[in-house]
Amino acid sequence: MRDKVTVRHITKKPPGSTPLTMITAYDYTAAMLADAAGVDMILVGDTLGIFALGHTDTIPVTMDDMVHHCRSVARAHPKALLIGDLPFGSYHRSVADAVDNAVRLMQEGRCEAVKLEGGRERVPVIEAIVAAGIPVVGHVGLGPQSSHLLGGNVVQGQTADQADGVVADAGAVADAGCFAIVVEAVPRRVGAAVSEEVSVPTIGIGAGAECDGQVLVFHEVVGLHRGESPRFAKRYADAAATIVDAIAQYCDEVRERRFPDKEHSYLMDKDELERFRSR
Ligand code: KIV
User: Which residue out of 108, 117, 127, 184 is catalytically annotated?
Assistant: First the structure.
C-alpha cells in the first residue's frame, strides 16, 4: 500500500526528479480507478461541467456542483492528493467570498487543496486563501474560465510579450504562496521558462515536457470522450467502445432471452418448489 500523498510530498521533490502525475476525476468510481493506477494528484476540475454535466464549457459550473462532485471523489479516500477547482465567479467578487468558497471546498467537499485560474491579478485572493491555511494550486497560461475574454480557448504566450506575461504571472502566484502551478496551453519553450523561473512544481497541460509534472482529463485519457479534444490530449484507451459493446451485448441477450440465465437467477429449494407448484 502506498503512502498518502500530501502537499509536502509535492513541494519537496527536488528538480530533475520523476515528473509528477495529475488526472481529473469527477466521481467516486473514477477516483478509485485513478488512485489504483498510482496517480500523485487527483483534480476535481471544473471541466466536470463538460465531461460530467454536458455543458459546452466550464462557465456554468457552480460551487454547489463542485462541492457535490468533490464529496463523491473524496469518498474514494484516495492516496493521491485531492485538489478541487474553484469555479467561475467563486473567487472574482471579493477576497472574503473567495476565502469562504475555498473553505467550502475543504470543509464540505473534503478537498486537501484548491486550484484557481489567473496570474498577477489573483495575488490578493491567493494570499488570503493561503493565510486561511488552505493550500492553493495556481493556474496560468490559458484559463478556460476567461475564454470569452480571450476569444476562445486559444494557445497563450505566443508572442515574446505574452510569453513574458505568462512567466510574470507564474512568478506572482508562486510568490503569493501557491505550492504548485498548472500551466495550460502555452508553447513548450514558455512552459520550460516558467518551470525554470518558479521554485514550486509546474504541472503542464499542453505546456511541454519540461514542466515538473503533467495533468490530463480522465475522460480524454481513457477514451470516454466522443467529441473533439485539444492537441495536447492523448487517448490511452477506448473505454467508450468497450462500454458500448458491453451494453449492446446485454441488450442482445435480453432480447434473445439469453439473459438472465440460471447463473444469474435465484433458485428455489426443490421441495419448496414442489409445494409451491401444487398450490
Ligand atoms: O478543470 C480542469 O480539468 C483543469 C485541468 C484541465 C488542468 O483545470
Answer: 184
